[in-house]
Amino acid sequence: MTDETLRLTTAQAIIKWLANQYIHIDGQELRLCGGGFGIFGHGNVTCLGEALNAHRDALPLYRGQNEQSMGFAAAGYAKQWLRQRFMFCTASAGPGTANLLTSAGLAHANRLPMLMLCGDTFITRLPDPVLQQMEHFNDPTFGVNDAFKAVSRYWDRITHPAQVIQSLPNAIATMLDPGDCGPAFIGLPQDVQGWTYDYPAVFFEKTVHRIRRQAPDPEDVADAIAILQGAQRPMIIAGGGVQYSQAVAALTEFAESTNIPVVETIAGRANLLETHPLNIGPIGVTGSDSANAIAEQADVILAVGTRLQDFTTGSWTAFSKEARFISVNAARHDAGKHRSLPVVGDARLALQAFQTAHKGYRAPADWTAFAQQQRVAWQAYVAENVSAGNRPNSYAQAIGVVNDLCDPRDRIVAAAGGLPAEVTANWRTLDIGTVDVEFGFSCMGYEIAGAWGARIAQSEHEPERDVITFCGDGSYLMLNSDIYSSVLSQKKMIVLVLDNGGFAVINKLQNNTGNESFNNLLCDCPTIPQAFGVDFVAHAASMGASSEKVVNPAELAAAFKRAQASDKTYVIVMDVDPYEGWTTQGHAWWEVGTPHITDNDAVHKAHLDWEATREKQRRGV
Q: How far is CA 248 from CA 305, 341, 396, in A?
């Protein structure tokens, strides 16, 4: 170590340091930060913008159209790279930064790394109050950026240039920590960005990171195996953490050696191929009859890499109250939920330890045979559900068309609305780790932006493959501008816009709880005198995409082939029925707040029916 120093601005130091962080992935040494998404304003253009321009080759900056969608794109990028690499987002002080709140919430809920470098008000306060400043009369230090404390795993405000020496490594350590992974927020006051400091040159030396694998405690492993060896009806719930720890092979080996049936969460879709004999299907509210049937009877549940959210557990009605849970998770908080025996550690190392310790245990043959029979029945249902037939167009039919024609390594993206449920239930996995259904924070608008981020990541290692995103008309209208981003950056996507005339899935929930249709479908909005359809084809074309509308699944198949052959983003629009064609089987109970008193008999009856299932609900912490 030498005493050599470099005089840099705060902004220059941040970007220079980021450009020198690397990670080993599959034998390759890659930059840890793949670049960033940015919209400049007065809060970040002069100083941070100057620093980024000087490193434009090392850290490519993608120009966003909306700060929220930039954050969604960063999340899609991180998912595609299995949390091993991340993107930063930079936004100006005020509304630009505030727009990132929702995407920070998505990254936090989904445990995804994303670095936010956001403008802040002047630390000197000499020009206060400044443009876009939120003044809190009794606390001058409190502002918009403090709102990110609720949706960040790491939060800091740089008030002196020297602080980045401590703050940046802590942010990276958080984003690479399997048990604490999530977004990191660094507030950058506009004056501090330009202040200089004599930084130690050693701070900017090339650093190669690795993601820590925490071995589980041997006694926890022994306790878990003891419970499993007494199981008559065991099952494995495979979550998204299986993929993030690259534990698919270990999961498969353990399941095959023990003959234990495996079900998947929404985040864990594509842990096993559709054709694997122990793949019993997706579980929960948007799951399958097969997975939910074995969940109801299982006596021991091994949950691997899942936070056991309500859509997985049927709001904790999907399992017997007597069933024992073993939870393998890198995060202590997730491992101990609902009286689980916690096995805190890396999923791959834990499954390998289980493989060594299970001493020849195999699930009873009749139990596994029962699970597989249920799976065969569910596969028959899905085959019928996705077929065209002589019936109205549906989400499931569109899913079936794409499933039949796409390449096994294509990336499938869906989020919010009715499509996550339909994709989760009906998609037949062609290859491992190819499905991204964002239902952790359930953000409408993720579909297109997240797909753009995934495509940027995919083009870095599988450029010949496609990213295919399923998008409802409601989500499209909420956030569509990254069609333009994808055209500008030449990151082709295939976007399927399935138009059902409004927010049809929430209309379905509204009707299922006894309520009349109100303010969800455009035709049921009392403030809309006459509804009309949006010309999504013309709109997408105006942003530079190729686009066309089809009238049925057969035309969709032909259009999809044209989209595959295209060299730029391609948008295909098809109307679907808002009432018919929903996947009606495979659902578990979901706790929804319904009115305890009402003058509406239908609503009251629905409330009683809904509450009747509550007696199955497990109580726990």
A: 11, 22, 27
The token pair that represents 320 in the structure block: 């017997």
Structure tokens at 213: 């694998």
CATH 3.90.226.10 is held by the domain 5-209: no
HSE, side-chain direction, 13 A CA sphere, residue 459: 14
Domains in the chain: boundaries: 5-209, 218-378, 387-575
Check: CB of residue 263 under 8 Å from CB of residue 295: yes
* DSSP per-residue letters across 185-249: EEEEEHHHHH-EEEEEGGGGS-EEE----PPPPHHHHHHHHHHHHT-SSEEEEE-HHHHHTT-HH
Element (H, E) at 258: helix 248-258
Is the pLDDT assigned to residue 254 strictly greater than 70? Answer: yes
Q: What is the pLDDT of residues 569-582, one digit of tens each?
A: 999 999 999 999 99
Residue by residue, DSSP assigns 69-82 as HHHHHHHHHHHHTT
DSSP letter at 521?
B
Where does 222-323 show beta strands of DSSP type E? 234-238, 262-264, 279-282, 300-304
Place of tokens 């419970």: 227
Sequence-ordered list of residues with C-beta below 8 angstroms from that of 126, at least 6 positions apart, any chain: none
CA 28 to chain centre: 26
**Taking the model in full, what pTM does it have?**
0.97
**Token pair recorded at residue 405:** 């024609």
pLDDT tens per residue across span 14-55: 999 999 999 999 999 999 999 999 999 999 999 999 999 999
Q: Would you call 290 helix, strand, or coil by DSSP?
A: helix
Per-residue pLDDT of 554-570, as tens digits, reads 999 999 999 999 999 99
pLDDT, tens digit (0-9, with 9 covering 90-100), for 470-484: 999 999 999 999 999
Q: What are the contacts of 165-174 at 24+ separation with CB within 8 A?
A: 165/199, 165/200, 165/203, 168/14, 168/17, 168/18, 171/115, 172/21, 172/32, 172/209
- Rounded to an integer, what distance in angstroms lies between the CA atom of residue 145 and that of residue 56? 26
Please, are residues 506 and 418 in contact by the beta-carbon 8 Å criterion?
no
CATH label, 218-378, candidates 3.40.50.300, 3.40.50.620, 3.40.50.1220, 1.20.1250.20: 3.40.50.1220
